[in-house]
Inverse folding.
């Protein structure tokens, strides 16, 4: 009788200790995608679309880089003997449009990439890049998960450190920089306004990674909580810190060196940008 009770008690204990079924998101096979579907190979300064995605390649003087963009969102870029380059692919809703309400739509990016042969880069950004279009606020933003240099980009990104927050498994430092340069089209304006002052927002991950998930909408919420519409003076000009609505959301590789030419390659082999 004691033996039966012991067996019964053991079965009850085993059932009680059985782990519950994981109801969270499925584990991602980061090597399952690769380059698939139609593709276009470009060189110089080119932009266009393939599949559901918009792409762009830029270099100094339009030479020194080639890129292949695929209809599943992946792409690769090689550059040599150019001081600057930029390659990106993703969503482009039109900079003169109303933008995307990240408060009501949850944008999430899953990605994996490799980098190799990097030489002479003094700066290099990897991650989400985009432009914000809003009737009153126009800015460029980066969610930087990795970099193409040995050192993590720091305070030299801009004069104003807005603080830190924790998201996507790490701490991000937010740096704000006012820039005078070729600004995007302003909403309701008939043409290009040329060089304008606009803000750049950099959210830089503490520890770089080459694959993972970026909850883009959650980053925007963190920025708005951090900024709450405050006004700061940067280079003797007042700026309202407000991120507005993004009109462009892309995965980007970019880098360069003002003093000498650079070279390298980068390959985005997993790309899934979704929203609900």
């Amino acid at each position: 009788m004691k033996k039966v009770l012991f067996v019964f008690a053991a079965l009850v204990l085993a059932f009680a200790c059985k782990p519950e079924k994981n109801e969270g998101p499925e584990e991602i096979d980061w090597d399952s995608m690769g380059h698939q579907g139609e593709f276009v190979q470009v060189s110089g300064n080119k932009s266009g679309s393939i599949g559901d995605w918009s792409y762009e390649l830029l270099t100094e003087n339009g030479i020194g880089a080639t890129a292949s963009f695929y209809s599943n969102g992946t792409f690769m870029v090689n550059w040599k003997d150019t001081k600057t380059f930029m390659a990106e692919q993703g969503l482009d809703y039109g900079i003169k449009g109303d933008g995307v309400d990240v408060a009501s739509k949850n944008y999430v990016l899953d990605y994996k990439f490799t980098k190799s042969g990097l030489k002479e880069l003094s700066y290099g950004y990897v991650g989400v890049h985009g432009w914000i279009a809003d009737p009153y606020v126009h800015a460029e933003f980066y969610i930087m998960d990795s970099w193409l240099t040995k050192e993590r980009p720091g305070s030299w990104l801009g004069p104003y450190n807005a603080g830190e927050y924790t998201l996507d498994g790490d701490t991000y430092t937010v740096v704000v920089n006012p820039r005078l340069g070729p600004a995007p089209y302003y909403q309701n304006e008939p043409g290009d306004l040329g060089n304008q002052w606009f803000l750049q927002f950099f959210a830089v991950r503490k520890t770089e990674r080459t694959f993972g998930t970026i909850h883009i909408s959650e980053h925007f919420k963190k920025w708005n909580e951090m900024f709450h519409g405050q006004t700061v003076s940067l280079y003797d000009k007042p700026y309202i810190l407000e991120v507005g609505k993004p009109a462009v959301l892309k995965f980007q590789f970019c880098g360069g060196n003002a003093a000498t030419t650079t070279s390298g390659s980068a390959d985005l082999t997993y790309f899934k940008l979704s929203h609900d």
Residues 2-17 form the longest helix (16 residues).
